[in-house]
Amino acid sequence: MSMSPLRLAVICASVREGRFGPTPARWIADQARQRGDVEVDYIDLDDHPLPVRLSQSPSPDVTETLSQVTPRLTNADAFIVVTPEYNHSYPASLKSLIDWHYTQWQAKPVGLVSYGGLAGGLRAAEHLRPVFAELHAVTIREQVSFHMAWEKFDENGSPTEPESVNAAAKTMLDQLVWWGESLREAREKRPYGE
Predict the structure, then answer these.
(1) In this predicted model, what pLDDT tens digit does every residue of 105-149 receive, in sequence order?
(2) How far apart are alpha carbons 160 and 154 in whole angstroms?
(3) Cα(128)–Cα(14) distance, integer angstroms
(4) Three-class DSSP category at 30
(5) If DSSP codes are grouped into helix, strand and coil, which group holds residue 6?
(6) 3-state class of 9 per DSSP?
(7) Closest by alpha carbon to 127, among 161, 106, 98?
(8) Are 32 and 7 in contact (CB under 8 A)?
(9) Is 109 helix (H, G, I), strand (E, B) or coil?
(10) How many Cα atoms are found within 13 Å in the side-chain-facing hemisphere of 179?
(11) What distance in Å separates the CA atoms of residue 103 and residue 43, rounded to the nearest whole number?
(12) Domain boundaries, the chain
């Protein structure tokens, strides 16, 4: 059975001044684009600032920002979240994006790419797993992490040791696509929550 490409949203979570996040985020988006079974939508949270104060009646500015992001999350069949580790967790910009949305994550898989110093952002990734579980999303087992990330990419944004990280990305993407296609088919047969 031939299926349409999986709609994958790659989310660059860092908005910090001088951020490194776009480097690994663009790399994983490029890895996904090389596949014939994935269509990539790259979402940079620096382009879509959401306030941390949630509201049932958001201001016109917040409503405008949501209108640029929410439909893209709704349309996605799967997600890759690229996150740094700040103070042993993930950034407020990502928490804000997650908290402004609920049904958009449901019954969809989430792949994690983390980066940082010695821990490689692993603590941030592990903090995200129960958050996404609460939203009825499925985080996949395999992930990619970059320890001492700024030493792992050259000046062009390419990995300095491409064989190992490209292999890790392929494994993660293979699992993400399996879950994404399976859950998309399930949602089409029986909408989640009914």
Answers:
(1) 999 999 999 999 999 999 999 999 999 999 999 999 999 999 999
(2) 6
(3) 14
(4) helix
(5) strand
(6) strand
(7) 98
(8) no
(9) strand
(10) 23
(11) 18
(12) 6-189
Q: Which of these, 37, 45, 46, lies nearest to 178 by C-alpha position?
A: 37
Handedness of CA 177, 161, 157, 125 (dihedral sign): positive
Between strands 78-84 and 109-116, the pairing is: parallel
Q: Quick one: how many helices (H) and strands (E) in the chain? A: 5, 6
The per-residue pLDDT for range 17-65, each reduced to its tens digit, is: 999 999 999 999 999 999 999 999 999 999 999 988 999 999 999 999 9
Tokens matching residue 11:
């989310």
What value, to the nearest 5°, has the Cα angle with vertex 100 and ends 194 and 42? 95
| 6-189 fold | Rossmann fold (3.40.50)
CA–CA separation, 35 and 7 (whole Å): 12
